[in-house]
UniProtKB/TrEMBL annotation:
PANTHER family: L-ASPARTATE OXIDASE (PTHR42716), SLL0471 PROTEIN (PTHR42716:SF1). Transmembrane segments: none annotated. It comes from the Bacteria. This is FAD-dependent oxidoreductase. It comes from Nonomuraea rosea. InterPro entries: FAD/NAD-bd_sf, NadB.
């Protein structure tokens, strides 16, 4: 069995993992970065989800390295894509002109930029990336992780053992927590534990946000109907009790009001991409599903370059509600069923969906697996909204963030802030039968205590697995916050190595904490918000 050593092992190559690795590498450390899918970048790439970001993202509220990622994506388009001169000149260029984000783009572009950000460290030999590998075991000595064992995704017998002074869990589902015996929580905590007004009376550990398998489509002449999925009849008849109609329909609850609404779907509207206002304070953008998460607006490109827009399907109807995929014995079966649901949605769109012109079915919809990289035409990986969450020194609760509770005071400010974030407390329907929970949130800080396990000394969460609750995870789970979490965790591991100290000591010692926070600020991490109002 191959054994590899480095200063730090970052297990999981999503946004948090990439940011953690970059922070360690900037500090001069050696890093092993692992990822089980073909692309680095997680929810931005292999899961194919355009970035969900705060309304002020172009001015403040993200780290300097995350801003470099965003600007790198725009620069890549300007350097390599046949943009119109008008699009090329737009400072805040939005390739897809989607309503969900000021930067809707094709996943492969983000992959290229991430690889470029990591390339110098690969060349120097200080970074080694292992793909496609997943964690399958760990050795622990008391409160320290001594090694992590990985297996090749496609060949279980091909295994590698990692040794590192610090181990960062940046997996999408907190895979290292059970493997190392680290205390964690899943699902909905009880109100008795958290005092959250939206929490249930009793804990519901298997009640988690739905996972979704996204996919990209365009719309061109011809019949591009896929084979009828084996479970299509099941999904065609499926009707959640709170949905207001069948899952495969244009009707569903409004996330913010829960009133039943009907969405529209108009492929290739002749809209002006530069007039799209991607500001979720004003409009969540989901009324027309074609433009909601559009990732390529054909009018941004020279005539004939794109025969159609490309839109990313991450819509309510692909949320898989039948079971969680964490801590269940048949997770693979449910992940396969979630993929089958997405294919069933596509088949319904192509064959039975009521058309805007009065007809039925959009046979011209073409599955763009070349855009998402999945072997079956879908995204490579499921979109994971909720992870295992470490039992940390600090747990962020609803009453720390909610505008309804905090009013004009803003979110709780932490003395040990390691970054900032902003998104509504946005929970999709859950495996426990809950409807949306989508409420206004104050711009918030990320407390260092949420990144430090109560007991383990050299294991750090670096993704969606920090000390949040089921409810507050809904605000902390999005792209720039995950990146900031990873960056802070990587910088913390490097700082502890430099100072021969521990994460617990850094948080407890005012001088060490100030020095660590100063390092974050030097690297472009914002620790406080200016005076802005939540939404």
């Amino acid at each position: 069995m191959v054994e590899i050593s480095a200063d730090a092992a970052v297990v999981g190559g999503g946004l948090g993992g990439v940011a953690a690795a970059l922070a360690l590498l900037r500090a001069g450390r050696t890093v092993i970065l692992t990822e089980e899918h073909d692309w680095l970048g997680g929810q931005l790439t292999s899961q194919a989800v355009p970035p969900d970001e705060p309304s002020w993202v172009e001015q403040f509220g993200v780290t300097a390295s995350y801003r470099a990622l965003r600007e790198g994506i725009r620069a890549y388009y300007r350097a390599h894509y046949p943009l119109t001169e008008r699009a090329r000149a737009q400072r805040e260029f939005n390739p897809g002109a989607g309503h969900v984000s000021r930067l809707c783009h094709e996943p492969r572009v983000a992959v290229a930029v991430i690889e470029a950000m990591l390339a110098p460290y690969r060349g120097s030999g200080r970074l080694r990336v292992l793909q496609p590998y997943r964690p399958v075991g760990a050795e622990v000595d008391g409160d320290r992780v001594t090694s992590v064992r990985l297996a090749h995704r496609d060949h279980d017998t091909e295994q590698v053992v990692l040794h590192a002074s610090y181990v960062l869990d940046a997996t999408e589902t907190g895979e290292l927590l059970p493997l190392t015996g680290t205390e964690y929580v899943t699902g909905f905590e009880s109100q008795a534990e958290t005092d959250e007004p939206s929490a249930p009376a009793e804990a519901q550990p298997m009640n988690m946000q739905a996972v979704s398998v996204c996919f990209a489509v365009d719309h061109i002449d011809g019949d591009h109907t896929i084979d009828r999925p084996a479970s299509y009849d099941f999904w065609r008849a499926y009707e959640p009790p709170f949905w207001g109609d069948k899952l495969l329909s244009w009707r569903c609850p409004n996330p913010r009001t829960l009133a039943i609404m009907e969405r529209s779907f108009t492929p290739n509207p002749d809209d002006d991409p530069q007039l799209v206002e991607a500001d979720q304070r004003v409009n969540p953008g989901d009324a027309n599903l074609w433009t909601f998460r559009r990732i390529a607006a054909r009018r941004n490109f020279t005539p004939g370059a794109y025969a159609s827009d490309i839109t990313l399907v991450n819509w309510p109807m692909i949320d898989y509600l039948e079971s969680p995929v964490i801590d269940v014995p048949d997770a693979d079966r449910h992940l396969a069923a979630a993929r089958e649901l997405s294919l069933s949605v596509l088949y319904w769109l192509q064959t039975e969906a009521p058309r805007h012109d009065g007809g039925t079915g959009y046979a011209g919809l073409r599955l763009r697996g070349d855009v998402t990289g999945g072997a079956d035409g879908l995204a490579q990986a499921p979109y994971i909204r909720e992870s295992r969450r470490v039992r940390a020194l600090t747990t962020v609760t609803e009453q720390d963030l909610s505008v309804a509770i905090r009013g004009d005071k803003g979110a709780v400010s932490y003395h040990d802030s390691v970054g900032v974030g902003m998104y509504r407390i946005d929970l999709h329907p859950s495996t426990g039968g809950d409807n949306y929970i989508d409420v206004a949130c104050s711009p918030f800080e990320i407390p260092l205590g949420a990144l430090i396990p109560q007991r383990m000394t050299n294991l750090l969460p670096a993704c969606k697995n920090i000390g949040t609750t089921h409810i507050t995870n809904g605000a902390y789970r999005l792209h720039p916050v995950e990146w900031n979490i990873g960056e802070a965790a990587g910088a913390l591991a490097a700082f502890c190595l430099d100072q021969a100290t521990t994460p617990h000591a850094v948080r407890a010692d005012g001088r060490l904490l100030a020095d660590y926070q100063q390092r974050l600020v030097r690297d472009g991490v914002e620790l406080r918000w200016p005076d802005v109002i939540g939404y």
